[in-house]
Amino acid sequence: MNKQHHQGERKFIQxxxxxxxxxxxxxxxxxxxxxxxxxxxxxxEIVVTxxxxxxxxxxxxxxxxxxxxxxxxxxxxxxxxAAMGARxxxxxxxxxxPVGTMDKAPGRKWxxxxxxxxxxxxxxxxxxxxxxxxxxxxxxxxxxxxxxxGSVPRGKALLRSGAKVxxxxxVTGTLxxxxxxxxxxxxxxxxxxxxxxxxxxxxxxxxxxxxxxVGRALIRRAGTSKINSAIDLSDGLSTDLAHLxxxxxxxxxxxxxxxxxxxxxxxxxxxxxxxxxxxxxxxVPKQIAGxxxxxxxxxxxxxxxxxxxxxxxxxxxxxxxxARGWEHQI
Length: 330
Ligand SMILES: [Mg+2]
Hints:
The chain is an alpha+beta fold. It is built from nine helices and 14 strands.
């Protein structure tokens, strides 16, 4: 971490080192040296993902409890690792803070709690904070960038590009609940900053739970049950399934009646931020790593001038499912 810091920031950096704890596991050298050292297991590959969390784009200080903002920031990256079947090895967090943030209690407290949200989820996910940076933000908004490294047995990473014609399409958990909670939040923005909420209370928008154990189990059982492709549901079923189809060069049909709903059908299709996994394959059990798995459709051949994703509605009609944001209709 660089040296041009005000006293508040300097103290913060010292406290980060203490709170991050000692290096261990795949993180051989953590905070304190010029760089971190990671040790992957013998025959493994390194998986890397980075995510910006920008104030007023990804979180709002007046809407999101600081802990939830930190949790969400890390959850996005962990969910990407889960989708690849990777085991997280190290987290790296860079923060740009507006001038004076660490000099006064409300700003300092917010950053402390944000970090707490990151560290609690990191601990629960078996990964350590291995380093990062702080700087003064150019404007009035907090900017956070998270880098996550993970490992996966060589050649085993689950890819978006592996779906095969005839594969079943499966999702974990339920879809749409995060979008429902976001609506509740936008109707009453102070609701959750007023009340003390924690990740134990099952808030799907504030404290999403990345499916790391499912991702790793998918890799382990790939030999027998044939898991061919995977993606995490960060942008919404309609968008993410379209991404998977595009990368695999296939089309998909899903059945509205089969989708495990955590809200309305529209929430489930377009809501996003559920951080469940979607994967395709054959002979898939109804539960993986203790998480419910539901078959919602199948992969079919891509045809010219045909929509890549079709949805069979409850009345039996079939209609193209466009990869659209939440505010649009199906
Ligand atoms: Mg993703």
